[in-house]
Structures are given as C-alpha cells and as structure tokens.
Specification:
α3 crosses α9. The strands form 6 sheets. The chain has a 7-stranded mixed sheet, covered by helices on one side. It is built from 9 helices and 21 strands. The relative contact order is 0.27. The two termini are 26 Å apart. With 299 residues, the chain is of the alpha+beta class. It is 26% helix and 28% strand. β3, α1 and β4 form a beta-alpha-beta unit.
Length: 299
C-alpha cells in the first residue's frame, strides 16, 4: 500500500533479517504476517533476531507496563481517543532505532497502528513553518509529581526513587531540572526538530512537538486540564520553541495536516508484527472498540 511516498512493505514469516533491514532502510516500515505469535515470550524471541530488546522504558512520558523481558504494553490510553503520529522518544537523549509492534488480539473496529514517512512530512511543510522548527528547535518540558498529581510521577518515569540516580540520568540526557518544594520534578530538554539519519544521510523530521502541546488533547480534556493549572508549564508535559517562545497552534496544525496526508493504516491480524525504523517513520494509534492487545518491543 502506498500513499504520497509512504510505503509499508509486506513480507512473509520466512523473511530473513537481511530482507527486513533492507526494506526498513528505504521504506521505514515492514509488516510481517504469518508468524503466528500468541504470547509475549514468542514475541520476544522474534524481536531477538534483530538485536537485544531494550529492557527499560526509563524516561518515557507515556504510561505502559512491562509484561515480559523487553516487552511492554502499547501506550495505555483510553480506546476512544487516537494517539497522534510521532517518533518514539524523540524528546530524549537517546532513542530506539527499531520499534516492534505485535498483535495478540485485534480490535473489533479501528485500532490500527498508522505510520507516516517523516521525510514526506518534512518535505510537505510550508517552508516558513519548516524554517521556524529547524531554526529554533523545540524545548520539551515535564512537570512530574512526587507521588500524587496529574500524569506520571518522577519515580515511575525514571523507574527509581533515588534522586541522585535521576539526576545522573538527566545529566547524561542533557536535560536541565529543578526539584520542587512539594517533592515534584521539573525538567526541560531542548532538541532539534530534524536530524540527519546516520545511515541514509537524509534530513528527517524527528520531533513530538505537536503531541506534547495541549492543543493535541481532546477539547473537553484540554479545557479541564488547563483549568487546573495557572500556566501550561504546570501541565505534566508541554512544549515551546527552543528559544522559549510559544509555538503557534497554526504551526502545530500544519505538522498534523502533513502527517495525516502521508498516513498509512493497515488493519491488524492476530500474530502480525510491524517493524518501524524510528527515525524514518512516525507511528500512532487509531481509536478502537472491543478488546485489543498490541505489545511493543524496542531495539
């Protein structure tokens, strides 16, 4: 299936690692069908063919649970809402190269994991919008509570209650931070909006600015959250341009329109594995009904 330059390559269960990696290096997404995977352990074994799965999601801002060694739930978010297209951990100091999604139970309706070629998104942006992002970068801000409050706690985010360990992690990730009087933690990380792909040498879109902005939330949820805080910086996560200036919603909407234009969504079948090259392709989640169980692994 092809849409304005975005291609999902479909391969069978007998595809070799070399075939998968070659397809990923050009198209960014591979769907493996016919693997007949039914358990987290079988999924882990399939992922291990491509490298050692990451055993931690430390520093990640979305809620997910570990279900097996190197295997996690997909983002735990109400099924009636979609999850916008994004590059995984693009706000962090390091990020996974490959993402693996496995379908154990397909939804009754919806529930696909849409993908989008980040190169096509970047090329489609209005030059003025693109110049603002590439010239100014993006600052991601977190306001993490210490045990009770909105969003994730810093203890759950960094998988420890040791402040010194958290501070070492933040320093290694080039993030500034401030402990608050009520036991919470504020962090900030300024990142480029695009990066040079280490293999292809291409400039790729690699940011989650539109996802971290409150305009990404459903209207009722957004209004309710903003009523609880005095400033956007008090939300669990928020974003500005890298110079600290607000990002106009029009600029973020331009990103969303370009992403949707190049989105491809294939319905899941039980046992499917989708592999995403994280710097070449964005991914998201459609709203859905019924039972759905999609697991995630990263290398």
């Amino acid at each position: 299936m092809r849409s304005e330059g975005t291609t999902v390559v479909r391969l069978g269960a007998d595809a070799s690692r070399a075939e998968v990696e070659e397809a990923l290096g050009t198209r960014g997404v591979v769907l493996l069908r016919g693997l007949d995977i039914g358990t987290p352990e079988q999924f882990h074994a399939a992922v291990a063919r491509f490298g050692d799965p990451l055993t931690s999601y430390r520093g990640g801002n979305t809620p997910r649970s570990k279900v097996a060694d190197g295997v996690f739930t997909s983002t735990e978010y109400p099924p009636e809402y979609e999850i916008s297209l994004h590059n995984e951990l693009s706000y962090a100091g390091s990020w996974p190269r490959y993402l693996f999604f496995c379908c154990l139970v397909a939804a009754e309706t919806g529930g696909a994991t849409p993908v989008c070629d980040g190169r096509a998104l970047l090329a489609d942006l209005d030059p003025a919008v693109r110049a603002r992002f590439t010239g100014r970068g993006v600052t991601y801000r977190q306001h993490l509570h210490g045990g009770y409050g909105l969003g994730k706690s810093w203890q759950r985010t960094f998988e420890t209650d040791d402040r010194a360990e958290v501070e070492r992690f933040l320093a290694d990730a080039d993030m500034s931070f401030e402990w608050t009087d009520d036991g919470g933690l504020r962090t900030a990380a300024t990142r480029p909006a695009t990066r040079t792909h280490p293999v292809t040498g291409e400039e790729v879109w690699f940011t989650q600015a539109d996802q971290w902005h409150p305009s990404n939330l459903p209207p009722a949820e957004r209004e309710a959250l903003l009523e609880l805080v005095e400033d956007e910086a008090d939300l669990p996560h928020s974003v500005t341009y890298g110079d600290g200036q607000p990002i106009p919603v029009a600029d973020l909407d331009a990103v969303r329109v370009a992403a949707k234009k190049h989105e491809v969504a294939l319905p899941w079948e039980r046992g499917d594995v989708m592999v995403v090259e994280n710097m070449l392709a964005l991914h998201g989640r459609q709203a859905y009904t019924g039972a759905r169980r999609i697991l995630v692994s990263m290398t």
